[in-house]
Amino acid sequence: xxxxxxxxxxxxxxxxxxxxxxxxxxxxxxxxxxxxxxxxxxxxxxxxxxxxxxxxxxxxxxxxxxxxxxxxxxxxxxxx
Length: 80
Hints:
Layout: E1 6-7, E2 15-19, E3 24-29, E4 35-42, H1 45-59, E5 62-66, E6 72-77
Parallel strand pairs: 2-5
Antiparallel strand pairs: 1-6, 2-3, 3-4, 5-6
C-alpha cells in the first residue's frame, strides 16, 4: 500500500487543492509559502481534483491538497 507523501512547502509551480467550506479552489505555488489563484468555486471535489490533475500533467508538476495548517499531502505526481 502506498504511503502518503507530506510536505510543508510545495515546490514552485506545483498545484494546491484548497477547500473553502462549500467549494474547492486550485492555487499555483509561488514557492514562498504563497500561491496564485488558478480556479475558484468548484462545488464538487472530484471536478476540482480532475482539473488539478490535468493542469499538473500539462506542466509536469505535482498536485497537493491542504491537510491542515501549513501541511500538504500529495494527490498526484508528474514531476520527474
